[in-house]
């Protein structure tokens, strides 16, 4: 392995998130516009190229690889890509190979993911109400996701549910979602909605539900104990003592966690975003394609990009207007 990747703020970069497609079978209201224009397929890195890219990062100290999208499981042959990445788990270079998914294709793919070495998946689910699910995802069917969760559990995958906290949408469901996760043995993490992508008249501030309030809502019913354990992701965890359940909080707005950032994001076209909340990016496609048999140029480009990693995002809703908004949609980098 070459020297580790350290950014200008002395943060070691050990976590790579890869968006393997910008396409999705849902159109969640906070993530995409209804009429999205997607990239032409010819612009995408091939799976072989993504393999070479990820393998290079792993050689430079990346230990956690999360595949995301758009919806990662709608990309053709993606399970073959997971199977290939599994070799880095076998050598011990990679500590975790995982994905974030909307769950719609898990009935089909859960077994192959397990066979590739995936042990834990994060599944996005904001509501357990069929009609509301249709509203928030526009195109999704709750039943299909629940079947995907069943199959993932059947094959042995550990599941974390990611729910975006949305005022006036899933507020009232906090007890039901929490209870449902507990009964099914699923971890649960709440996420604050971030200003990604221009959504026209979509009201982000109106829908912003601070996780400080979510925590208070838990405290009305449970004894909540903060935990020190981390997964290498941005969530902080607390335990509900009455049930022993672990709840995660991802709080980019109410409690910034950038100082412990360990991650960068690669898009399906080979752009490297050094921060989710800034526009800076580096093109890695040209150095990747410069020489198929030698990754020297790619490694140099990655090191140069890491020296440009910003301190953090500038998201802010505190003045009753959206600050720090990104022009790109969340699906571009995969969250
Ligand atoms: N602002 C910000 N938000 C992030 C970052 N990483 C993840 N998130 C948000 O948290 C959501 C959930 O992240 P996941 O894909 O579940 O990944 P994770 O939280 O690293 O997962 P674990 O490994 O389970 O901790 C993302 O979709 C983003 O909305 C980050 O670096 N900065
Ligand atoms: C962009 S999706 C990609 C993976 C997959 N399609 C899924 O939904 O899990 C990753 C995560 O980003 C979250 N997300 C999307 N837009 C967001 C926003 N504006 N603010 C906060 N989280 C967002 C989603 O809820 C999801 O958990
Ligand atoms: S959050 Fe995930 S499922 Fe929803 S539109 Fe975005 S990429 Fe698709
Ligand atoms: S906003 Fe940027 S610096 Fe902050 S945790 Fe996310 S990626 Fe890291």
Tell me the series of helices and strands, N- to C-terminal: EHEHEHEHHEHEHHEEEEEEHHH
Beta-strand percentage?
Answer: 15-25%
| Individual helix count | 11
Strand order of the largest sheet: 7-8-9-6-5-4-3-2-1-10-11-12
CATH class annotation? Alpha Beta
Number of domains: 1
Q: How much helix, percentage-wise, in residues?
A: 25-40%
- Briefly note the CATH topology name: TIM Barrel
CATH architecture title: Alpha-Beta Barrel
Termini, distance in Å?
28 Å
Uncertain segments are none
Mean pLDDT over the residues: 96
Counting helices, strands and paired strands, the structural category is: alpha/beta
Shape: globular
For this structure, what is the CATH homologous superfamily?
Aldolase class I
Radius of gyration from CA coordinates: 19 Å
Q: Could you outline the blueprint of secondary structure elements for this entry?
A:
Elements: E1 15-19, H1 47-59, E2 64-68, H2 78-91, E3 96-101, H3 106-116, E4 120-124, H4 130-137, H5 142-155, E5 158-165, H6 174-184, E6 187-192, H7 204-207, H8 211-221, E7 224-226, E8 236-240, E9 245-250, E10 263-266, E11 271-273, E12 281-283, H9 285-290, H10 296-306, H11 330-333
Parallel strand pairs: 1-2, 1-10, 2-3, 3-4, 4-5, 5-6, 6-9
Antiparallel strand pairs: 7-8, 8-9, 10-11, 11-12
Helix pairs in contact: 1-2, 2-3, 3-5
The structure holds guanosine-5'-triphosphate, S-adenosylmethionine and iron/sulfur cluster (2 copies).
